[in-house]
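Q: What structure does this chain adopt?
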Amino acid sequence: MQPAVAPGESGNDLTSTVVATMRQMGVMGLPRNYEIFYEALSGTNPMLSLEVIELGNRPTQERLDQIGQKYFAQNHNQTVVEKAREVIAQELEDVARLLRNERTHLERYGQILDQTSSGLNNRDLLSKELLQKIATAMSMATTSTIDHGRQVAQTLDEKSSELENVKSKLEEYKRLADTDPLTHLWNRRAFDKELAAIYNSNNGIMFKGLILADIDRFKEINDRYGHPVGDKILKIIADIFRTSVSENMFVARTGGEEFVLVVDGVSEQSTLEIADHIRVLIEQTQFCGGQPSVNYGPVTVSMGICMASEAESAEDLYTKADRALYRSKIDGRNRVTRFSDISPRAGKNWMLYRKD
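A:
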């Protein structure tokens, strides 16, 4: 399998290549398989491309699903959950069977104790030989019960470890499902939850704010240099966002060329300074690549800010930050605008906002 298409290959050509490659390798034409091969053949994810190459001819569906869950966890929800359900159900069945066996074993032990107790109560029949037999029987039964109990405890400990492993896998899946596979920032799904949580408490409303950022003229970059270059630029900008803020601040790529930052515990002026610092860093970054080296820049971003206290809900907060972002666009791009600086009279026109 070729790891990437030719630089000038169109979308239709890539689609044909993906279908032909899957057919040649005997891969079922499932949407989740198509997603893997499209990403691998486009060359936008080198690690994924290498893993697909290592599959060789006739890869199993199980191996393909493992790759899909690793790189596209958000689209493999049902598969991951179903497998976890099967493992948990099997473990519970094994534990129930084990406890039933333990109950039977204890009942037999109790019967032995009852029988020996009855023998001891019959003083007329007691003899040295009978006492020796009773002692031997009780000793053997007790030793067997103790050994069986140890085995049960060991097995239950193993089952507990297996269930902990399932729990860890589900937690890892949840993390992957909330992560953008290209930039490894949080994704739109995670952002929606983070944004909604702001209005769950008065602290969130008082001390949080939202920064929206959109790469200027990103479509022109993709059209001129190709999507692999565009993806490389997205990764660099994601790294700038990630390394420019404290760990307690939420950074996500919410789709295409849009990034968001939820700031916490800072004033509106400090939020403006954080946004403008990131904007300047991106403006000053050299976006180069290829042989010979090509400068893909300059690359700039426009930003919009709204503090949570200025909005009535998560949806309202996003809408107002988006209006501020639009104002940055129409004022010339490569700038930061606060919603609080926008004239209320201009509000009717904000929904005209279109990405460029």
